[in-house]
Amino acid sequence: MPQEHDGLEVREAGDVDTPAVEAVVEGAFGDQGASVNDVMARLRGVEDMGVELVAVEDGDVVGCVALSRAWVDARERLVDVLVLSPLAVAPDRQGRGIGTALLEAVPAVAERLGAPLVFLEGAPEFYGRRGWEPASAHGLQRPSDRIPEPACQVLLLPGHEPWMTGRLVYPDVWWRLDLVGLRDPELAQVEETLTAR
Ligand SMILES: CC(C)(COP(=O)(O)OP(=O)(O)OC[C@H]1O[C@@H](n2cnc3c(N)ncnc32)[C@H](O)[C@@H]1OP(=O)(O)O)[C@@H](O)C(=O)NCCC(=O)NCCS
């Protein structure tokens, strides 16, 4: 860290980057941007934010990713893990590898934070092509049935051990803002798309 290729730098974000990160999130998530920014602000406030990375091109923040704290409720003990959310790229810069560059920076940063596992909710095609696997394949359960099973994905890091199975538990902030999984009618639509594949 930082990593740079083709004029794109991926580095850790500081407080000074927050307004630019919020603008990228607003652009990428549209109507949902405000609530995504709200959860990020609250995670920073209660120190549940692990790390934020930004992608910078020509001095502009053009993408961001956040890793925040959660647990796996394993039989032996709670395991500290990370949740990747959000991943966002400014709409006019999408489709040029910036999201992929941000994802490539995640394993090293997550490992440095001591996490054996990183989770996310997202499209299985996009993340599956980038090394993520269904959490269910590793004995890991989603925190809500409203996350379609293939959408709850995990990245195994070198600290992972086979006994680390159980349910992913999100901290309170995600529930307070009702940002866990999807709700109908969007949930039904996404489930239909996933079963049609
Ligand atoms: C999803 C997102 C982060 C990808 O970033 P990106 O920089 O466009 O991604 P890359 O250029 O590295 O890769 C392009 C991939 O994104 C997919 N994609 C998704 N939305 C896209 C868009 N609007 N334009 C171009 N590609 C898009 C493409 O299908 C392509 O996938 P593939 O290479 O596996 O076929 C970005 O499109 C985004 O911010 N979307 C809105 C917010 C969002 O949905 N975040 C993810 C929540 S799980």
Q: What fraction, in percent, of the residue positions are helical?
A: 25-40%
CATH topology: Aminopeptidase
Give the helices and strands as they follow along the chain: EEHHEEEHEHEEEEHH
Number of helices: 6
The CATH class designation is Alpha Beta
Class per helix and strand makeup: alpha+beta
**Number of domain modules:** 1
Q: Architecture in CATH? A: 3-Layer(aba) Sandwich
Commentary on this structure:
Strands 1, 2, 3, 4, 5, 6, 7, 8, 9 and 10 form a 10-stranded mixed β-sheet that branches. This protein has one domain (3-196): Aminopeptidase. 31% of the residues lie in helices and 31% in strands. It has 197 residues and is α+β, with helices and mostly antiparallel strands. It has helices spanning 18-29, 33-45, 98-112, 124-128, 172-176, 186-196, and strands spanning 3-5, 8-12, 49-57, 60-73, 78-89, 117-121, 133-134, 140-141, 152-156, 166-169. Strand 5 (78-89), helix 3 and strand 6 form a beta-alpha-beta unit. The longest helix has 15 residues, at 98-112. It is globular, with a radius of gyration of 16 Å.
